[in-house]
Please model this.
Amino acid sequence: MNSEDMSPPTCRRRLLVQALAGVALVGGTGLAGRALAQTVEATPQDVLDVVVIGAGLAGLTAARDLDRAGCTSFTVLEARDRVGGRTVNHQLAGGVIAEAGGQWAGPGQTAIFDLARELEVEIFPSYYQGRNVYLAGDARYEEDLSAAHGNPVTAKLNQLSRQVPSKEPWTAADAPEIDKLSVAQWLTSQGIDNSSRFSFDTSIGLTTGTPPASLALLHYLSLINSADCSMEKLEGFNGGAQETRFVGGSQVLSTRMGESLGDRLRLSSPVRKIGNWDSDIVEIYTDQGLVRARQVIVALHPALCHQIVFEPALPEGRAQLQRLWPAHAPMRKTVHVYDRPFWRDKGLNGQISQADGPLIFSCDNSPADGSVGILSAFVRSAQLTHEAERASQTLAGIFAQALGDEALQFRQYHDHDWAKVDPWTLTCVGAIPPGFLTRWGRYLKPAVGRLIWSGTETADIWASSMDGAVRSGHRAALEALQALVANRRNA
Amino acid sequence: MMKRALLIGVAVGVTGLVLAAVIAGPQMLAGYRFMSALDSHYARYDADVGTWPQPQDTCNACHGASGQSQNEQYPSLAGQQASYLQAQLQAFAQGKRHSAQMEPLAATLSDDQIASLAQYFARQTPLRTDTPAADERLSAEGQASAAARGCSACHGSDFMGGATGPRLAGQGQAYLLSQLLAFKQGTRTDPSGAMNATAGLLSPAEAQALAHYLAGLAAASR
Model:
């Protein structure tokens, strides 16, 4: 073995330094120093083929695909000390969990069901049998939704959604016209009554994180389009996207994928800056040091992308998309644990909607065997104190009005306000306002330099859902592999 | 009216009231009462805010009904000076004040909408945001600090806001503390520099005492 074979990294490093010094002479001494400092360690061993930013469903799916394709030179960087992104399990007493984030799947969401099968994660049906309860002031009304039929307004939305492709809603033939309207403006033009207004306010608020008043009709139609052009499938439990849950909680999918990555997953490594994204070797600056890669999959919400410094600055369109993408829908979700799901005995399903108080919507989130009763609730963050004791009692009082006094006897309480827990989610799903997609949407998906964008927002189908995240991860991995091949061919 | 109670709403998904074809007896009465309560709720809202839809719908989740937060982590807008609210919305929209949540949201608003929102929240009745657990010693320290730092010069003798400073009385303790620290660290800047200079002098303990004192003050009506 000759000396060259014994120390190729050193040889290559020396060559690189010489080459760069030559360039630097032309560029001036200041630049020379910087160029040398940045590249002196850039041996082939130091440069990964791919860095994935974000260990949510999208990033982990992408990493898993890279691994399965035989690409071993990659690392997943995650800001938090956990995986799962917008899915997280509360661990309750007795090994029971309740999800604080995304948790449901339903018909047509084949990507996440396939993933669950591959990871051997079981599924079970959400509990929704029985009557819903509606509250307004002191008034209480209950109704069984199983007899629900369509109606002219939803039928019209479903019909309109056929013209708005979920993949690129801004390309719809009449996108400019549709995108002038909020969903609420369109609803008023349909002459809806107050019960419909309440229903749309609640449903859309839960699905998109923002009220119909500030939600773009174009965006909402694209979500309906994803759901087989059926608002019932998008919003419903029975036969809809809330029909199915994952045994052990939705975060288990990410936990399993993370475990299989071993030390290629780096937690507590928030990315602060991405440099040279327009060059062959991208520099990713984290709190745990610098990482270099040939391709980067950014599996983050666009508003989180905006928190990263890019050098050089991103092209104007992409930069504006990230700056203006709404992030005001963080969601706050609580858990009350009971000895049993007592409401079921009364023919109630635990679903409560309140028109004028802190509760947006509660549902039965008990484990598959119903061994304990769990009520999860989405609450209006500022209409409920942050202090746990008083917050839990206030909500229990509302549950008691709806379900009976047994609701006052809860054993545990948990509260997860996504806006306040940490800075690594910022917001839930897409609260897109009118005019946004037609102006900025086209910058959402195309790669920029060596940066490939992933995350549920970029999904062609089921954007905003866990299924969309998985789809976007698959697509990003393919893009990264293709880019690596193309770069080598061109080298 | 009876027919309305029978035909209550439309099927709209997760939470949707459905078209119940046959409702009888007590259930019909409950439906009627519920619809009346719902009608009153929306009538009050529309009289207060304006013909639906209005941008205020979007503010409520984080700032409370009528801009009155009941969560100490989220600021109340009710009874705040219109000029202050307007300046803050414009600062968010221009990226001069930082909030991942507020910057994109404010950027969607027109100047007219910003002015109208500011005026709307300024005329709402302010209440105390949340009740901090009583700590008289801490309150006394905060009161002494407020006097020593001359806070009332800008924020008014009752801390309900003055010519140049916003309402502080009855804001949430956690929110007040977060803003004092943001001014101290420079992550929030005051165009006049006054708040950065003042907050820069505060120890964490003094900032805590000030926030506690101000959060415990009743919001005086104007």
About this structure: Residues 1-42 of chain A have pLDDT under 50 and may be disordered.
